[in-house]
Every structure is written in C-alpha cells, then in structure tokens.
Amino acid sequence: MPAKNLRSIDNIDTNDMNFKHLETTKDIVISPKNEYGDPQRPDATHKWSAKVSDGTNYVGDYAVKINGASLIVDSEDFTKLPVGKYMLEVWEQWTDPDGNSQLSIYPSPQQTISFTIYANITDQAGKEIKKIGFQDVVDQAVMNIGMNYVFKVNAIEPDQTATVVQTAADGKNYVTFNVPRGAKGDKGDQGVQGIQGVKGDTGDRGPDGKQGPKGDPGKPFSISKIFPSKDALNGDGLSEGDFVMIASNVNDPNNADLYTWTGKEFKLIADLSGAQGIQGPEGPQGKQGPQGNPGERGPEGKQGIQGQNGNDGHTPVRGVDYWTDDDKQSIYDETKKYVEDAILNGKW
User: Fold this and answer.
1) Using an 8 Å Cβ cutoff, are 136 and 240 in contact?
2) What pTM did the predictor assign?
3) Which CATH architecture has domain 11-119?
C-alpha cells in the first residue's frame, strides 16, 4: 500500500486578527510552520479555504490567497458578518500521487484561530438612537432640516385609530399625534359595611372591595426605529402600533416619512418633509442712484408792448349822465365871471 504524503505543516502563527465592522483593508495573515517551528511555504497547487464559525453556528467558507510563505484572508470578505467573536480554521485539500483525496486542518488539534469584529461608530450610533426619546429625535431632525416644528400628543379613545394631523400657521409647522389610550379596567366589588360597636363605639371598617384589574396602558408615542431608506424598512423586532421614520437626505422623496407597523406591513402616517419652513430674513435695501444735476434755465423772454385801451361801450356825457343842476349853475357862474372880467376890465 503506497504511503501517504506526510503533513508538512504542524502549526501556524497569525498577525492581529481583530478589525472593525465593514473594514475592507485589513489582511488576516496566517504563517504556517513545520514541526520544528520553521516557516513552511504552503503548496500553491493545493486548494485552501477558511472555515468560519461564531462558536455556535457554522458561518461559511471564505477564500484564502497564498503570498509567499503566508496564507491571506481579506477582511473585505467579512463585511456581511455582524459584530461579534468568531473562530477560523484553514483547510488544505489535494490529491496525492496515488489519486487519493487528502485533507489537513490547521491549526493543531484542539485549537482554532480566534478573531473579533468590533462595532464601528455607525453601529454604536444605531444602538444609541433606539434608546433616546421621540422628542430628542424630532429636535435633532428639526435642527438638521431647518424646520420650525411644534409637536403635540393627544390621547384619544382606545377603539380609535392613531393619526397624525399637520398644519402650518405663522411660519410654524404644527403636528398633532392622536394616540389611543389604554382600555379602562373593570370596577372592583363594593366592600361590606362594618357592624356598629356597642355603646356608641364606631364599628370596625369592613374590608374594602377588590379593585378590578387595571387596563393595559396605551403605548406611549415613540420612534422605535430609524431607517436610512424606504427599501430598508423591515418589521424585525417591531410590534403592532410601533412607529418608524426614514432619515436619509433632502433629495430622497421618502425622507422624513413616518410609518406605523400593523403587524404585517408598514402604513404611511405622514410625510413631514413638506412642512412650511421659517421665513428668511429681509434682504438689504438697494443703494440709491446718484441724483442728476438740474438743467440750466433758458433765457427769459421780453415782455410785449401793452396794447391801447379799448373803447368803452358807453362814455358818460357831462351835464347829461352825471352833472346835476348845481353842477350846471357852478359852471355858469364861473363862465360869467370870466367873461365880465375880460370885457369890463379890458382884458379881452
């Protein structure tokens, strides 16, 4: 019977096997050694693969590349794995000269290669956002998109449907969430009255009636999850009546959409992206143009010659229109005096 090829790799060394979630530039370097601890160059004609487990479940096979005396596993191949601790084995498969399939598994028995995928800052932020209250999410959303919101939560009857009413006035956006309250519990039985004591003593108080079971409280309004897009919506971990919100960017038509989970599907409640924004400040007044110089005054025209007075329509006749008898007598006397002086005194 032909002898099998002996296993040439007895143990391995590795570099730092830890990296962050979604990291693509970290190489996991596995350095094979022989039984004496000396570096052993892997056979490039053999088939190499990395088997990965999370400690409970087998995760899958991943590619192994050969680079000189090292086996390389790229962290880019692990981007779909969630944050956590993992174990890895390297499998070497080949066919010996006799045509038999052979398999070696590294590292040595009772060992595995451990590595950890740590949470990046976006993973941590995703956990934190689920812990903060609804008002905190709204305040941050308002700060980001520059809208002036006023929110109010209104309790309605248990059998009514939750709604969101949005109005705009005075440059503000008013959003009212109508949330059903919990059903009222049954009334407890009335207690038995105590028997009056002797000699006027007050009777012992009878036992109080038992209060009926308290109704389930209405679910407080809160955002259970924030999704980056409509396509990412899923009901994992949600219960009926939970609210979720899409926070992406202003170019996404589904940005700021609010949904509720019915237990089977998502129902759109309101699109908060269409709310009225705050009026911007008044722009500065434009500069006044320069005033033109007044034009020169033209030469003053000469005054024309005054025309002759026109004839009266009727000229009064002295002694007819306005001379009285006294006027006539005065003229007569003056004339007579003149004539007598001229003739009698030789002045003629």
Assistant:
1) no
2) 0.37
3) Sandwich (2.60)
